[in-house]
Design goal:
Layout (H helix, E strand, L loop, with lengths): L1 H21 L17 E3 L6 E3 L4 E5 L2 E5 L2 H15 L3
Antiparallel strand pairs: 1-2, 3-4
The structure holds zinc ion.
The site of zinc ion (ZN) has 8 residues, from loops.
Length: 87
């Protein structure tokens, strides 16, 4: 009997998971203009959080970083280069 209940529980979980996958973001509350809350990203240089949409994106050493400004981006980039050492 307990086994059956566990099976039912797992089946329910699976059902919820599949339903969530098939209908992505349907329950996400947002404005009619698709006002999804912007993801916040941290500027690794000055540690400020900025909305990803407004952040300055830089790819350094195959890693993507987000900055609050071009200034932070170039400073961080040159710092990275000095850390690596000139070869
Ligand atoms: Zn910054």
């Amino acid at each position: 009997m307990i086994r059956f209940l566990i099976f039912l529980f797992l089946a329910y979980l699976l059902y919820r998971l599949l339903k969530g996958l098939l209908t992505p973001g349907k329950q996400v509350g947002g404005g009619p203009e698709g006002g999804v809350i912007d993801e916040m990203v941290q500027d690794p240089y000055c540690k400020t959080y900025v909305p990803r949409r407004e952040a300055v994106k830089r790819t350094i050493d195959r890693e993507t970083y987000y900055f609050c400004s071009e200034e932070c981006a170039s400073k961080f980039e040159s710092e990275k280069k000095t850390q690596r050492g000139e070869s």
